[in-house]
Amino acid sequence: MSTTPTAVNEVLLGWSERDLGVEGRVLDVVRAPDPVLSTRGADVDPTDPATVQLAADLVATMRVSPGCVGLAANQVGVSARVFCVDVSEHPKTRDHHGTFVLCNAEVVESSRNEKAREGCMSVPDLTGDVKRASRVVVRGQLPGSGEEVTLQANAFEARALQHEIDHTDGYLFLDRVAGAHAIHPRKTYL
Amino acid sequence: MSSPAPLHAVTVLGHDRPGIIAETTGRLADLGLNLEDSTMTLLRGHFAMMLLCAGDADAPAIEAALQPLTADGTLTVTVRDVPQEDAAAPAGTSWVLTVHGGDRPGIVSSVVARVAEVGGNITDLTTRLAGDLYLLVAEIDLPGSADVPALEAAVTAAASDLGVGATLRAVEADDL
Fold this sequence. Notes:
By secondary structure, chain A is an alpha+beta fold. Helix content of chain A is 18%, strand content 30%.
């Protein structure tokens, strides 16, 4: 039996960082070649207060970073499989789940590859053309409650999720670029 | 069938400014030369172009025609005749190799040596130094006989010895 959700996950859509109950701190974002970015993070206990604080810190750091649609714990120097995403303000977004944080997330289904240009706060001087699925099913746990959630994401949210899950696995978009002519010096900085 | 027109390789290298390509290709067109393959990029801000053009003008005539480009001393132009090459039919499999990490001498040479050892042919290569980050992306044709998992292990080990990371992925071509 397929358990694939077919619409926006209401639990995730209703979630906000206020549910964490702690104040997020803005952390410094680390840049390649810091080895923490090339190391798979540890699986975490989503109910651990340290994980909850990390989740709040990731959202707070994402919020103050212009153009940032997602941030993984590796990017603030913490080798743990946690990330936040919020693509709601991005022009390439179709449906979306607003702001959310997932722990120990993985892609369980993917289809419909599309190529697009990506950047990353941890690789500020380069962008790259990366082929990724434009429809994914992702499973992970919410920080705090530890509730397991499965969501279907499309278009830009799907790309952001794959980019962040790659971070938690120790991969950068540089590891996925389509070829030697798919790397570009960044022209504009947000 | 008549033999194809002679091929000439032209390189233009030096200080970047608007109009270099327009001027170069305009002078080549004036000589009746037909542009075949070309590539141009900026290497740490330097203009770098290589192109192949076909036509009956000889290398000294092309060099003379392009001489004004070099007048202010900031650009170097070379012209040489090259033979026609039959593009070898791609045999085996196509891969993309990414290596990135802290800059240090020898990253490219160590990693691509492992590729050469198994008869792998690099068909396109970009390296970039961005701050402390060194990045190599290479497109590679591997012969059908290549032991890909063994190559991947050798490349990963070579990269690891230099404190950098490597990924080898199959090229997926989605024919539409």
